[in-house]
Every structure is written in structure tokens, then in C-alpha cells.
Hints:
It is built from nine helices and 15 strands. The protein has helices spanning 7-15, 24-43, 67-82, 103-106, 148-151, 220-231, 248-258, 277-290, 321-333, and strands at 54-58, 64-66, 86-91, 98-99, 110-118, 129-137, 160-166, 170-175, 180-186, 191-196, 207-209, 241-242, 261-264, 294-296, 316-319. Helix 1 runs antiparallel to helix 2, helix 2 (24-43) runs antiparallel to helix 3 (67-82) and helix 6 (220-231) crosses helix 9. The radius of gyration is 19 Å and the shape is globular. The termini are far apart. One manganese (II) ion (MN) binds at residues 69, 92, 115, 117-118, 120. It is an enzyme of class 3 (hydrolase). Its main location: cytoplasm. Residues 6-197 form the Fructose-1-6-bisphosphatase class I N-terminal domain.
Amino acid sequence: xxxxxxxGEFVVEKQQDFPxxxxxxxxxxxxxxxxxxxxxxxxxxxxxADITGAVGSENVQGEAQQKLDLYANDKFKAALEARGQVCGxxxxxxxxxxxxDRDSNANAKYVVLMDPLDGSSNIDVNVSVGTIFSIYRRxxxxxxxxxxxxxxxxxxxQVAAGYVIYxxxxxxxxxxGNGVHGFTYDPSIGVFCLSHESMMIPxxxxxxxxxxxxxIKFPVGVKxxxxxxxxxxxxxxxxxxxxxxxxxxxxxxxxxxxGGLYLYPSTASYxxxxxxxxxxxxxxxxxxxxxxxxASDGNTRIMELKPTELHxxxxxxxxxxxxxxxxxxxxxxxxEQ
Length: 337
Ligand code: AHG
Ligand code: MN
Ligand code: MN
């Protein structure tokens, strides 16, 4: 395999694109890569070992925590602390931001926000799940403990973002603002290999991804958009296709490759939608924009929203640019709830 490039090699190669890069981001990626391999190994044992199911506790958002939610959280947290490039993390599974207090971490420049296991209700039924991460340079001075302000930065300030999809193969997809690159894990050698360089999402797609069980609770503009998809034929006599896995990472990944729109609108039960701005929507928004697509809350660009809370939710529309624009137009034309 003379042209094979590993994730580690590629990150170091691309580091030269950054002025004053010192290798800290590469080292941070090494932490993520390592934790992803450990979580991947564990997920692959689901069904054999006693690792599926709920633990009986809830996270701060009142959602049942699965054993693998907590396992993935611990592994990513430990890997990020160990290399000393990160001064703190925020996670779906932690009520508050976690500040690493070792001396080496106090001098670190970065904070990481993460959804350690996305789509965790799919684990027990052998359907794809993922990990989502978002990396920021801290605002507080290096050498002091991080502050809340470091974690509540708008998505436009992200230094890097990405996800791991534990699917029919395991992939890591990331951006540092110079395109989106995907690496497929080869378990026989334990290495992520470059397989998808400079990924671009088609401007148009024929897939819409939404939990249609919530249809009657959707805003009028979203209902009209879904009807539009059902009544029109984007290409060669076929109507739009509905595809919804229930793991944001998996739905996003498919739409990134094929073109499409993922929707999680506000509903009567979730007036701000369900997905979390800081560790689900912002990283996906950074990736999709880098791949030529768009991410919106229906009105505003996701990455320009100013966060006020760690676990803040936001309506989320992400995917092919023409589809997001069309959806936004429907919401403008039919503003009723
Ligand atoms: P998580 O497992 O991290 O809590 O995320 C689940 C999210 C997302 O992955 C998925 O698209 C969405 O919740 C599914 O929600 P519904 O079951 O309400 O459709
Ligand atoms: Mn999630
Ligand atoms: Mn999760």
C-alpha cells in the first residue's frame, strides 16, 4: 500500500498549514484517535459482554444513561486529560464542565466539548452509533483554571471538529477549517487510514431525515416542507426518500456522502428541539459548511448563535445547501407554530 496515509501522518502533514503550529493539536487528535479505538473495541463486543442496557441513572437532561454512554465518556475524558493538551472538557454525560487540575493541563490551550456516544439507544439493537467532538482555544489565560466562558464560545470559533462513526466500518471524519477528511479504521493493523479526502456534500439531495412520528407537533413551515418532499420528484421520476436512523452521526454521515437534509425541529415536547448546540450541532455545522453545505436553526446560521448554557438545545437543520435554503424559505412563508 505505497500511497496509504494514516490519520496520524495526515494531521502532522496538515499542521504545517497553521501558522505557529506547535504540534499540540496533533497530540490532541492522538488522544481522540486512541479513545475511539478503545470505544470501538468495546462496542464490537456488545451482545457478548454485559455492556448493553441502561445503568439506572439519568444525565442532567433527564435522559437514561446507558452503560456504553458512561464507558465512552470515561475513555475520552481520560485520553484527553492524559496528554496534557486540554485544560477541560464538557460532555453530554457530565452535569458541569470538568476542569483538569494537573499542572500540565493548566498550561493547556484547548477545551473539548463532546457527545461521547451519540444514538446510544441504538447500541442494543446493533445499529450505528457515534462520538462527536468540538475543539476550541481557551479564552482564559493559560496557566489558570478554565472558566465557563471557554466553553460558551460560538461555533465560528471552533478550531477543529469531527465525529467517529461506529458503523459497518468505523470511520473518523474531521475538519480544522481546511476541508473535511475521512479515515477508515483497519482493525487488523489498528490504524485509521485516509479513505475520503476533501469530502463535499452535493448541493442538492433527494433524502430527508426526520423523526416523522413527531409530525403533528412540528411547526407549520416544517410540515409544509415535508409535504413538498413527498409531492415532488427531485430527479428521474422518483420522489424524495425518507431515511432516519435515529443516530445523528449516522444520518449526517449518509447525507454528507449522498446529499440530503437532516431535520430536528422544535416540537411541543421539545420547544427548542432536542439536539444540543455545543456538542452536537456546532461540530456538525462546522463540518457541513466545510463540505459546502449549510446548518441552520431555521432562521440563523448555527455557528453564529451565542451559547448561554452548556446543555442548550436548538432546532437543527443541516445538509445540502439548496435543501436547507428551501426549508428556511418554507419557515419564512409559514411562520405559524
Ligand atoms: P444521544 O444518544 O447522544 O442522546 O443523541 C440522540 C439524538 C440523535 O443522535 C438522534 O438523531 C436523535 O437524538 C433521535 O431522537 P428521536 O428519538 O427523538 O428521533
Ligand atoms: Mn447525541
Ligand atoms: Mn450521547
